[in-house]
Amino acid sequence: MEVNVAVRKLIRKNPEIRPYLGGTGGQWNILAKVVAGFPHLRHVAHCVFNSKEAGLKKGTTDRVHNRWKSQMVEGAFYHQRVVELENWMFLKSFSDMREDVLTRRSIQSLVQVGFNSFPEMNSKIAQACAFVVGGYFIYDSRGCFIDLNDAEQSADKGEVFLSKSVRRCYERTCSSFDAIPGKPLAFWVSENFRKIFTKNPQLSEIAPTKIGMRTGDNERFLRYWFEVSNINIFQSAENSEQFENSGKKWAPYNKGGDFKKWYGNQEYVVNWRNDGSEIKENTLINYPQLSPDNLGWKISNEKYYFSPAITWSDVTSARNAFRSIQSGFIFDGRGSSAFPLKNEYLNPLLGYLNSEVVYQILAMVNPSLTINVGDVGSLPVPLSEIQNRVSDEVVGRAIELSKFDWDGFEQSWNFSEFSMLNLDNSLLSRSWVREEKRAAEAISEMQKIERQNNKHFIEALCLQDELSPEVPEDQITLTRADRDIVTGKQIGRAHV
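-> structure tokens emitted (496 positions)
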């Protein structure tokens, strides 16, 4: 690809110009005035060059700035070629840039290169796109959008592009991206999916999504629940006043965790004695610009502490995994949560969030490893399906199965006995056979539940022709009857 070759030559000649910046770093004086002149380009001031000049050299700051200032004005006649990390197509931090491009200019073509964009680098991180943008906005102008991600991750994307064998092509107008909040360039999205956004409220309207607390010193203020005396933990507070009146020191703390759906990852407690006075005092010492009445982005959303919620881990390498959190928890920035305005919405919303529909929507809004509060809050929700609570019983059973699985090991404060050791005077080998059978039956039942849950929302949103309700077994997050894993959990806890 011409653009890809050009940027490689540029990087070889000028090593300090790497294909990612993200608005930080100390070696980017070359582009400083570009950023100063165009603040909305702050996050994408890297790897940008036009068709007239594909090189940036030290000492050319003024020339680069003047060129962009003269060219990137509404109505300017030019064709700009850009190689950019594909993050700009989706992330919220790039929304101003997308807004500018989609409303004042016209994307004539875009290639989402994806994996192996730069073979010399980490192809899983530096995933790029290349596009051509014109200076005029033409309302009904259609651009050509090409996706190369169907090819093997290690494939030569230049050859894939030229062969036209493993790629998907779409024609889209700039206005076709308006339906999705933040205008991500999800060019593969069908009209049925776009209607989901335009006809339904956002999740934040019926279940506000909130980022949690940052203690500022986890080693000091957090513990695993088994590291402290149980008599100093209050697990069932429904509000701050109840916890304060209990005289206890430690409150359950939701801190994200591993890939786990429906229930689990309840391992930590936080020092919240005297309404978290030690944490707040430490925060004011480290951040003197804050005040006791406004601890801002450190001690966030206190009024939601101890409320029942739906939570998720903000960083994941797998699929979306939302979990039910009962009342009594404070939540961390890594365990951001949604708080349904009505308690009866909790189970139906949890079912929806763990569905294939939401997995596909999140891939449109932000196909990265981070699921942030804004992305989840902007999810469209079929309110009528939530209000009818059709999936309530199914989701309840999924939570029950997942809770039983979580409580079956000593990681849970509700653990009582390891099911395999309930011997009944049987040989250990026979007990293990029974455990294998029980685990297999639970996984099979959960697979049916998740398939039923998918089917319900797929049909409710008329997506039968686009999505399958099937759930592969490896997406079920219950513990397998693996001798090494199971015995390892027990032995590992025994040595804690």
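Residues 1-8, 14-76, 491-496 have pLDDT under 50 and may be disordered.
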